[in-house]
Amino acid sequence: xxxxxxxxxxxxxxxxxxxxxxxxxxxxxxxxxxxxxxxxxxxxxxxxxxxxxxxxxxxxxxxxxxxxxxxxxxxxxxxxxxxxxxxxxxxxxxxxxxxxxxxxxxxxxxxxxxxxxxxxxxxxxxxxxxxxxxxxxxxxxxxxxxxxxxxxxxxxxxxxxxxxxxxxxxxxxxxxxxxxxxxxxxxxxxxxxxxxxxxxxxxxxxxxxxxxxxxxxxxxxxxxxxxxxxxxxxxxxxxxxxxxxxxxxxxxxxxxxxxxxxxxxxxxxxxxxxxxxxxxxxxxxxxxxxxxxxxxxxxxxxxxxxxxxxxxxxxxxxxxxxxxxxxxxxxxxxxxxxxxxxxxxxxxxxxxxxxxxxxxxxxxxxxxxxxxxxxxxxxxxxxxxxxxxxxxxxxxxxxxxxxxxxx
Length: 407
Hints:
Elements: H1 2-11, H2 17-23, H3 25-44, H4 52-77, H5 85-102, H6 107-131, H7 136-155, H8 165-172, H9 181-186, H10 193-219, H11 227-249, H12 256-274, H13 276-286, H14 288-293, H15 298-324, H16 335-345, H17 357-377, H18 381-406
Helix pairs in contact: 3-17, 4-11, 4-12, 4-15, 4-16, 4-17, 5-6, 5-7, 5-15, 6-7, 6-15, 8-15, 10-11, 12-13, 16-17, 16-18
């Protein structure tokens, strides 16, 4: 008994920084890559990348990719894939435009109706995948073709717009400054106090949660980060959040889509890391037969992951249409490639059972920063596609290498 206690406590000791990084390369590799990529583009664009207006544009341009990446992570972790999300984005955006412009529906009827359509689309595809065991690749490939054609039919090959101002606020709106007195207190002519305070509070909460988790892990004998690495990582994250919030505060404040994206990220991170449902999704992707034998209703779980994906794709479609202020037949083309690439770059495994929400968000930002940085540099779309393809291939090779090394 004494030996067991001693062994358990020894597991809670910290390891060296080098050995810890080597054993958690999947978790931190992409974060370090994002920092390096941002640093590179900040230098080669002469500081344009991190200007307040460009940081705001980064969030506006990539919000719908990040939102879909949250759902795609669950699909891929469960051992499947969804190729139809780009077409669903285009179809839902087209449906929203037709509802408002041609049918005269209000925003408050259009938005929930379109989200319901997204849920139905996810349910229709999930039904064949979960209960008929048809490969998700085939079902969602068919869905990609069906909904691309449905968008063309609905729009009759033409763009529909402009859309209502209230609808545009989904993507282009900003949270009003509720703390205007901070502008004078800090001596700035233009400062959104709410954005700055929000960033400081988020940084403080993340540091507090990190300390709480670290102390809990030590109490249960779980390996924890080296002290120096823990302090450096939290300081880096906190400074990055405060820096971004300050930049946003000196422009127009918090974009609506950033708030939506942040809330969804927190919800899905909690779902995957702290709930029974989340653990079952990972078990499903890790070994479906074992999960079924352990009592998990694998068919229902698979069905729900696709329902969730349909809902998030519909939300992304609404945000994208609101940003363009119109619905076009080509909306959403190749979005599925960016979303899937973001999830794999963020550390998800092709075989399922592995991946984190934070990783998917980091992967989406890597794709977004690369797109933005290369566009600022004037690199053509042809070279951009080549570079993104090589980055995706490198991420998958990295995943396979890690698996073989662990085996």
